[in-house]
Amino acid sequence: MMVSMTYSRQRLRPAITGAFFGVAAAVGLLDAAGSKAMAFPVEVQSCFDKVTFDAPPKRPVVNDFNMVQTVLDMGLIDRFVGVAGIGGVAKGVDDPEGRLARVPQFSERYPTTEAILGQDADFYFAGWQYGFSEASGVTPKKLDDLGVKTYVLYESCIRIGPRPPISMDTMYADALALGRIFDVTPKAEAMVADFRKRVAAVTERTAQAKRRPRIMYCGDCNSDTPPRSIGAEGMPRHLFNLAGGENIFDDIKDSYVPVSWDAVIERDPEWIVISNPRIPPEQSIAYLTSAPALRNVSAVKNRNFLFMSYQERSPSTRNVQALERLARAVHPELFKD
């Protein structure tokens, strides 16, 4: 078991050295692009509604790892008066300059309406099931009635209605919308342009793949409890496709869904992508490699595990970084240089 775990940790290391340098370069582009004032008001599409902003938000708040990371990478975090949803595991957000430490964390998990209002917030960036919920009563309409404007993570709109199939444009739309809302459109456009170049550099190679390995996204994979995986509408599925693989649950027309271990065994993934910000990847690997029923699953036999952070596998400015790592892991023959 010790040999297996040591090997697994090696597989969990980034598949390319300097994986974070791509984002650093993008942030450099942001600085170089500068920012010229836009004419307000501006109107942005937020799911199936249009939201008008008369000026950039003065007291914005944001929820969850992926959206906090996006705000950080876009150089906007210093404008925010509060963050939520990252519960005591802020180390899960990549913040080498320590800027996040200066922003109060006003709710460990998803905030209530009262908690948002308690920050005297005038803007809330979150997603459906990433902070918005009809069950909790935290909705864009309710907050708008209380004087708080919102922007909804585009990928999450699938939870309340049909949207176009998942793509990198789904994530780009968020960056460009935030650029307009915060009057940093040139910076947002520079970041998206850099992302497009990096994605093209990957897909030019993966298009040459002779076969497409079967890949499973595995959340909550540390016990006998049925795991969560990804259907055809989640960002991990799109990353798998761009990286030259195929999602084993592509027949499920949804994003994050519970599946059975029997289905995992039947579909026999060749790679397992592990992701959960509150469960150490070693715990998941320990379960996967010790469960008797899983011993013949190809990914388990070959110890083909790759860890993605929450923000890498959820829509955020770290999706391209995740794609680069995944493509090099599953198709090393195409990235020998």
UniProtKB/TrEMBL annotation:
- List the PROSITE patterns: FE_B12_PBP
Q: Which Pfam families match?
A: Peripla_BP_2 (PF01497)
SUPFAM superfamilies, A to Z: Helical backbone' metal receptor
Q: Where are the transmembrane segments?
A: none
Where the record annotates domain Fe/B12 periplasmic-binding, the positions are: 59-337
Give the protein name, as stated in the record. Iron complex transport system substrate-binding protein
